[in-house]
Design goal:
This protein is an alpha+beta fold. The chain contains 6 helices and 6 strands. Strands 3-4-6-5 form a 4-stranded antiparallel sheet. A two-stranded antiparallel sheet has the order 1-2. Strand 1 and strand 2 form a beta hairpin. Helix 4 packs antiparallel against helix 5. The longest helix has 15 residues.
């Protein structure tokens, strides 16, 4: 199976199932007779604009971000509402805390990266903390407001 067909099948799987890990996706592809590697799947996920989302019960699964930026911002706002505990601005940085040991920090930082929020020039994520880097303290304050406006 060529790359285009494999990616189309991945899109179909992600839209039809709640796939929680790359290993699970790899197993589903292998079960369908599609031989590939975890590294290839990782590249496919990135190219297809697939990210992890929370279902609100503590489980995460892969979803494909839509081309409609308004829809993607709604997902970001929901992610902030459901997962962010605190945000603190330090000069041109925002330090954002999520549920301990939840991996939501990585998911939310990835969402900021994908959306190209103009006031954010980069992100750095750990397990339950992520940093949003802005050019100026004013941009950092705007990002802080975006987050605090959507806290749960």
């Amino acid at each position: 199976m060529d790359r285009k067909a494999r990616r189309k099948y991945i899109e179909q799987l992600v839209s039809e199932r709640k796939i929680e890990t790359q290993d699970e996706l790899l197993r589903l592809l292998n079960d369908a007779g599609i031989e590939t590697t975890q590294a290839t799947i990782s590249r496919d996920i990135h190219m297809l604009n697939i990210v992890k989302a929370s279902d609100g019960t503590g489980h995460t699964y892969y979803v494909q971000l839509q081309k409609d930026p308004a829809h993607n911002y709604d997902r970001l706002y929901l992610g902030i509402h459901n997962n962010v505990q605190t945000v603190e601005t330090v000069q041109f940085l925002n330090v954002v805390k999520t549920e301990p040991n939840s991996s939501y920090a990585t998911i939310l930082a990835g969402m900021f990266d994908e959306l190209d929020v103009p006031e954010v020039i980069g992100t750095l994520a750990g397990n339950d903390t992520f940093i949003l880097i802005s050019k100026t303290p004013e941009d950092a304050q705007a990002v802080n407001k975006l987050i605090t406006d959507h806290l749960g």
